Amino acid sequence: MQVFDGFVGREGPRDRLLAAFRDTLTGKARLVLVSGEAGIGKTSLLLEAVREMGESDAMAVWGTCWDAERAPGYWPWTQVFRALVSQADDELVRDVSDADRVDLARLVPELNLGGPAVTVDEFDSERARLRFFDAVARFLERAARNRPLVVALDDLQWADSSSLALLEFVVRAHRPVPLLVLGAYRRDELGDATARSLAAVGARAQHVSLRGLSPTEVRALIAGVAGDDVAEQWSAVVHQRTDGHPFLVRELTHAFALDPHGGSAGDIPDAAHHLIGRRIGRLSPHCRRLLDAAAVAGNELLVDVLGDALDLTPAAVATLVDDAIRSGVLVAAPDGRTRFAHDLYRETLYADLSTPARLSWHQQIGAGLEHRHERGANVFAGQVARHFAAAAVLDGSDRAIRWALAAAADDRSRLAFAEAAAQLARVRVALDDAGVAVPGDALVDLLVAQADAESRAGDGDHARQLLRDAHENAARIGDPERLAVVALGFQRLGARFAMPRTEVVALLEEARHAVEGCAPAVEAEVTASLARELYHSVPRDRARARPLSEHAVALPASLTTPPPSPPACSPNTTCCGRPAPAPSASKWPARSWRWPSAAGTTNAAAKDTCSPPTHSSKSDHPPTGPTSTPSSVSKTSSRSPKRRPGAAVAVDSGVDRSMLVGLAHPISPA
Ligand SMILES: Nc1ncnc2c1ncn2[C@@H]1O[C@H](COP(=O)(O)OP(=O)(O)O)[C@@H](O)[C@H]1O
Ligand SMILES: [Mg+2]
Predict the structure, then answer these.
(1) Residues 175 and 28 placed together within one structural domain of the fold
(2) Which ligand does the CA of 218 lie closest to?
(3) Ligand 1: distance of its center to the CA of 40 in Å?
(4) Nearest ligand to the CA atom of 62
(5) Which of 163, 191, 209 is the last residue of a domain?
(6) Tell me, what CATH number does 143's domain have?
(7) For the range 4-9, what are the long-range contacts, defined as Cβ-Cβ under 8 Å and sequence gap of 24 or more?
(8) Least confident residue range of 56-70, 380-394, 395-409, 596-610
(9) Would you say residue 64 lies in a domain?
């Protein structure tokens, strides 16, 4: 059967989109939101309208959201800006100010190669975010002034909250330029938070709601797909049974075209699930297995990852992919990528998997992505994190936590703080649901990192609660350095959201006492922080500040001037000459996470360790997950053998370079 990719009908909605576009040409930016259920024709309508706008010399750029839990924050905007930068005039890109270039590099790192580092403002994340939003809007305005600009954002039901906040910012102001933003979303699949954000955005939008095709349109679609005879015979009944839902119309037509004499009105299944099942049922078991794995992997097929997961050569995978393309379940897009012909196929395949099969595929796809990363290719940390979290029952906590921390660091570097916090909350929930215990030190790391992200996202109460949990756990396992990190976290929180100074002072005092004499770098930071708090406290306390700050300066390992590494240190031996743990299977997560800290942060892998403080209640670690790997979280991210004072301490300049490397080459899944 011929593949028909023509567009039929929809004159009313198409006219409204084109009218909005013409409106923008008079110098008024516009937003139009298209809504309707999956398969109703939103993407097709946008594509058709954008094609027609292109005939009027508009530049169109496209961003598709996919599963906010797997994609990095601002993912649709990243795609939009990649396309913009590659299509726009050189001059437009060249004339971006240095300050804007640094901000836009959060979306497109290539914009700032060799330029100053992209940082996360330690004190004022909100202002940094506003500056970033402003840089984005300024670039869009300049591009639109050059040439009418259409930004299409598809599948907004899966957008991350930061992307929606940016969308709201872009459409909030009056922008006197020919800029049309088109959005599409599944109205019936909105989560509460997304619905609220879209409602705020929607107040400034025109709305187009799509329903089924008319009988005439259904007939035209069937005729295009299978010819006039099939249309003549079946269009009335197909319209009646599908309500004109174009995806179902296509599926039914496909079924009749394959077996024109085998159907009757009574045989027509009325659920997409059955139709899709029938198409999939005709595939070979090998091809079906490939599609099962692909459905777990995500929207786009990565041959190397699937080959790994299925234990097949790339050539064998390619042969199966060809079969699936011939069957119509997959399509080869013009950009050379292969994806599901519609997300409904992927969703149906995924829903039909048994629980053990699903768990196992998640583990294997996660491992495949990890291998891809080790080979130097691009992966999204959030995607890997999702697979290992879903497979926690089989895989244990180690990889799930490492990748969740990496994903959170990735989001943090893009100022997507709510997404960073969600990454960390999600992995704890996933491990809890799977009945997998989280090692105490890793739990503290997760809680502190989440508290930092929550506070930057503006939720001080939640951050405080998380730090309290972290404090309790650090005391329970008797980990002085983590007690210090928690105390410093409280101090930062106090600087952002008012907190009784006495509480902060007490926590810093406790931490200082715990690390005293065995972790100079941490001790210096805690002591300096304590001195700062006391200096701003009541007169009685103020007298203690000076000797403390002098003591902090005198400590051998200053955080601001790292001493050179002792020659005995090498990647494989500690400073005490003892062998260090083998490098973790995947270095990225371990390298990418740093302690969030106001004044600078210690590199966890290079830190000293102390014996447990006398005040700790219990020092036992909870048991690790059932299949913890040798490169466990506690080895890679926290406790190293005791080292002599003054040993090397890495200083975090606030920039996570490994993350920038990761961002420079993400996969483009959409
Ligand atoms: N107006 C149309 N003309 C022809 N085919 C259409 C039309 N609308 C939708 N389709 C087909 O229906 C299927 C689902 O449409 P799509 O635009 O992907 O839906 P949505 O984006 O709402 O999920 C696609 O195969 C598409 O080609
Ligand atoms: Mg769509």
Answers:
(1) yes
(2) 1
(3) 6
(4) 2
(5) 209
(6) 3.40.50.300
(7) 4/221, 4/224, 4/225, 6/224, 7/44, 7/47, 7/48, 8/213, 8/217, 8/220, 8/221, 8/224, 9/213, 9/214, 9/216, 9/217, 9/220, 9/221
(8) 596-610
(9) yes
Q: What is the mean pLDDT of the chain?
A: 77
pLDDT band at 557 (very low <50, low <70, confident <90, very high): low
* 47 CA from centroid of ligand 1 (Å): 10
Token pair 């922080």: residue: 529
* Sign (positive or negative) of CA dihedral 533, 539, 540, 542: positive
Residues 75 and 25 in one domain: yes
Q: Which residues contact 154 (CB under 8 A, 6 or more apart)?
A: 42, 43, 46, 62, 63, 64, 65, 76, 183, 184
Contacts of 624-628 with CB under 8 Å at 24 or more apart are 624/396, 624/397, 624/398, 624/437, 624/439, 625/392, 625/395, 625/396, 625/397, 625/398, 625/431, 625/436, 625/437, 626/396, 626/436, 627/394, 627/395, 627/396, 628/396, 628/397, 628/398
The DSSP annotation for 471-515 comes to HHHHHHHT-HHHHHHHHHHHHHHHHHS---HHHHHHHHHHHHHHH
Q: What is the pLDDT at residue 242?
A: 80
Q: Whose CA is nearest to atom 16 of ligand 1?
A: 41
27 and 88 in one domain? yes
Which range, 78-87, 338-347, 590-599, has the best average confidence (pLDDT)? Answer: 78-87
Same-domain status, 16 and 83: yes
**Number of domains making up the chain:** 3
> What are the pLDDT digits (tens) for 422-448?
999 999 999 999 999 999 999 999 999
- Contact between 52 and 18 (Cβ < 8 Å): yes
CA 560, CA 348: separation in Å to the nearest integer? 55
- Ligand 1: lining residues by beta carbon, under 6 Å: 7-10, 36, 38-44, 221, 246-247, 250, 342
Provide the residue type at 547 as one letter. P
* pTM for the predicted model, two decimal places: 0.69
Q: Which ligand 1 atom is at minimum distance from the Cα of 46?
A: 17
CA 273 / ligand 1 centre spacing (Å): 17
Q: What share of the chain is helix, strand, coil (3-state, %, to 5)?
A: 60, 5, 35
Tokens for 178, please give them: 């020919």
Dmax over Cα atoms in the chain, in whole Å? 95
Does the residue 395 lie in any domain? Answer: no
Residues 97 and 201 in one domain: yes
**Residue 194, token pair as written in the block:** 């997304």
What does the pLDDT look like over 507-548, one tens digit per residue? 888 888 887 877 777 778 888 888 887 777 777 777 777 777
Q: Do residues 289 and 249 both lie within one domain?
A: no
Q: Are residues 222 and 288 in the same domain?
A: no
Q: Are 179 and 38 part of one and the same domain?
A: yes
Q: What count of Cα atoms within 13 Å lies in the side-chain half-sphere of residue 622?
A: 16
What is the best residue among 51, 189, 247 to mutate for testing ligand 1's pocket, by most ligand atoms within 8 Å of CB?
Answer: 247
Pick the ligand that lies closest to the CA of residue 154.
2
For residue 321, give the CATH number of its domain: 1.10.10.10
CA of 64 to the centre of ligand 1 (A): 16
Residue at 81 is within a domain = yes
Which domain covers residue 319, as residue numbers?
280-353
- Collapsing DSSP to helix, strand or coil, 588 comes out as helix
Q: Which ligand is nearest to the CA of 158?
A: 2
Residue with tokens 């999204």: 380
Nearest CA owner, ligand 1 atom 24:
247
Domain's final residue, options 315, 336, 353: 353
Does residue 118 fall inside a structural domain? yes
